[in-house]
Amino acid sequence: MLSAKHAKLTRNILILALIGVFSFFVLTAWLPETKFIGNSIESVEESSNTVMRFSAATLSTSLAISALPDDFATPLADTLADMNIYFVGILVILFLEKIMIQYGVKLVFAVVIPVACVMGILSVGFKKDLLKGLAIRLSILGLAVALVVPCSTHITNYVAEDLTAYVESTIADTEDGADKLNEAMEGGTEEKTIFEKLSDLFQTAINDVSNLMLRFQNTIRKCMNSIAILILTNCLMPLINFFVLKWILKETFHIAIPMPQTRSRRRSDSDSGSDAAGTELVAAGE
Q1: How many other C-beta atoms are found inside a 10 Å radius of the C-beta of residue 261?
Q2: Residue at 37 is within a domain
Q3: Domain of residue 167, residue span
Q4: Number of domains within the chain
Q5: pTM, two decimal places
Q6: Within a domain: residue 280?
Q7: Angle at 187 between CA 68 and CA 176, to 5 degrees
Q8: Is residue 265, in this structure, part of any structural domain at all?
Q9: pLDDT tens-digit map of 119-165
Q10: 24 inside domain
């Protein structure tokens, strides 16, 4: 019969082995096919399409403004064109998030969690606090990485719905402005100036370039606000969720990550113990 101590060690080893096997053979195949992960991928793809539509709208508006007969509009056209730097950065983040969902989840549950379980088994067998601490850190980091983007997309869909509607409205206004500019620039038989055509198309008084520029300055302000919203929802939200998830995992399971004692600390402990023993001998001799 096993002693209580050996029985506890055997039980812990079996639990860790079962977790590793379950993660590798079950979660790796099942979790990526769930609706939770599928909806996250669709959300990231929709965000990518929104950013690309936004980029196309600003470029078409920039080209339309630059084609106006006066050079006063050139700075606004350049400003709209320069916004594509932000769109490229946001798209890179979105592609990384999609890769993390499609491959990161499988990698975490097929490799990271089983490796952490093996390290945990070794720490139980050899009683190494260093391996135990590394196994816990690896598990928390892996779970946080695997869940950060799916959780972030679902939270964004619920919390930032109004902000997303504002972005869609901005894209529609930008596309509409580009279409009306192109329509006004097209040749026709009507004996109207371009500003009279634009005044009719925009249904507002546009007498000169300054009036037109005031309208597109408002469009640029809305575009900058929308870019800030895209950065918040697609770049900062996943980062915030990562740290929140990491904290929740530690607090939920009440994980106290052990820190290995350094050699100097152990030596000082032994020295203090020897000093205490010497003091007791002296007291006994007296």
Answers
A1: 11
A2: yes
A3: 4-259
A4: 1
A5: 0.76
A6: no
A7: 60
A8: no
A9: 999 988 887 788 888 888 888 888 888 888 888 888 888 888 888 88
A10: yes
